[in-house]
Amino acid sequence: MTTRAFPEWLSTFRQSINGYDYYTDFPKAYENAERWKPEIYLLNSLVGSQNIEADFDALLARYPGCIRAVPILLAVRESEIYCQDERGALRYRFDRVAQTPAQYRYFMRETGLFDMLRNHIVSNLYDYVTGIEVGLGSNGRKNRGGHQMETRVESYLRKAGVEYYREMYLTEIESKWNLNLSAISAEGTSTKRWDFVVKTPECVSVIETNFYASGGSKLNETARSYKMIAEEARTIPGFRFVWVTDGGGWYSARRNLEETFRVLPDMYNITDMERGVFDTLFQA
Q1: Structural domains of the chain sorted by starting position, each given as residue range(s) with its CATH number in brackets
Q2: Model pLDDT, residue 2
Q3: Residue 109 burial (CB < 10 Å; 0-12/13-18/19+)?
């Protein structure tokens, strides 16, 4: 049983785990914009044109590849765009010239791209596309956020200088270190994959990690599930279950979290890692 006080431990939970690189992946945005640079510069020649439809036809005839950059001007990554109006429906292709110049001209006119270019709404398409890529990159925040806790845990494992492995299945652990984990595998029916596994001379430690910024039923289910694993793991010699979790979402599920806390000594949060808990826990 842990001797730590749960209320004090819970009070150190973070409301957010977001790092400085969470909000925008600028290197990726620049890289994506650079991919379109030749085509963008060709289309940039239309900025300010007062005879833009004729100039567009001439540009398309001489440099048909410039059409590939049109979707990104609309913040679309796909090379096909479906449009319809009273004149009918059409799936435009932009990876190659598949429509007539008149059809592409109609697309540019109706989507407002000709108006934007003709009237200097933007003066530099490369800067404009870079801004679009920054905006589209914000859609990746969920993915970046989902990996932040694992990244943070791994950084402290490295700092502790331990032998660790990422994402190992329970069966792999059994085979690699000749362990019988049937007590936590539902007699071999579970295909559980652990976020990290740490090997020390005396013990194999499996680590689960997560961060919950908001509440929900999943937290209660997680706490109950890990409580069961904690109780079963204690029966396996040379094996240890470690749970690293954090996040303000736990305040709404504190009762179930506390129940797990009382039976799982190796339950930690970000503050514990900052205080060097891995140095003590995994010391040889």
Answers
A1: 6-20+141-281 (3.40.1350), 26-139 (no CATH)
A2: 46
A3: middle
